[in-house]
Amino acid sequence: MANCTTTSRLIYAKKKGLINNFSSKVCAIGFNDIQCFETLGVKKLTICHPEKSVIKKAIALNHLTFVDLNGFTTRKIQVFDQTFVNITKSRKETLFNIAVAFFVTKIDGNIVINGDKELGIDFYCKKIGTLTNLIFFSKSHGKISISKKTKFIPNEIKIWKNYGKYRKIFSNYYTLPGCFSEKEIDDGSNLLVQNFSNNLYGKVTDLGAGWGYLSAKALENNNRIKEISLVESNLNSLKCSKINVSSLKAKFYWTDLEEENLSIRNCDHVIMNPPFHKGKQFTQSLGFVFLKTAKKILKKKGTLWMVHNKELNYENSVNDLFQNYKYIDITKNYKIIKAIKCF
Ligand SMILES: C[S@@+](CC[C@H](N)C(=O)[O-])C[C@H]1O[C@@H](n2cnc3c(N)ncnc32)[C@H](O)[C@@H]1O
Description:
Helices cover 31% and strands 31% of the residues.
């Protein structure tokens, strides 16, 4: 779905003559809604984004991307005439993306930073304003700031480039900024691990595997596992999981479960902590997609192990799909469902 606030801000900037030259080489970093660049009339667009759905859309629209549909890097970093950065929920990811913009834009080219107030665009306008000259305007509950790339990149911005490196969090796991639970292990995932430990065997799939915590623990605590598949839509998370789950039993799939079918079938177990946000919105719809996928890929009598936040309610869907289910653990914040595929 198009993000109207981003589009209206970009159109406004164009009308006011603050951004122009759309036949030149443009790079867009972190934009889910790449259609807004079609609306602007950008011709040579390169998209940089970790989500599979965005890369698929970009390729379908004949834009360039840094990775192909298998997640392999296809393009060397080049110089762009202007670069657009959309801020994300992760401050470190955004600062890294801004640093990249400063490195890949030609001298005197525009660096345009877009974001909603509630995601903290004011912070970035202030910060960049102390380091370079910039102009900005407010529109549609957010702001756009425009700076010119200067010959010398300020030292602080050079430091932000380090935020794109793998970071070790405790227990030797590596994460990248923007991944789910990038700083620490999620409490819900931890609870799920306690419940499935010593119960998994055979063929296992981890849906929405993130940086691989559930799979790493599954392999550590269940030596009867023969094969484990990690399925994840965010490429940065999947890259981390390849480091965190180094076992030869592991297979990795860069897949968006909303848009793509999995070839995996006949699993003995599915483990999952499904997402409950889509962009800014709190939603159960992704959880339903995950539940349907789990049912499809489990063998008959296979078992689903799922954790979810207590305020969400998946009971009707689990009942429709599995019938044989029970809550095996309920804490202040989480519920664990164990469900058996009956048909
Ligand atoms: C709540 S996190 C759980 C991550 C990991 N399993 C853990 O326990 O730490 C949900 C994960 O699902 C991924 N995800 C979101 N939408 C997805 C989709 N449509 N297809 C596949 N994965 C998705 C997110 O990127 C995120 O890593």
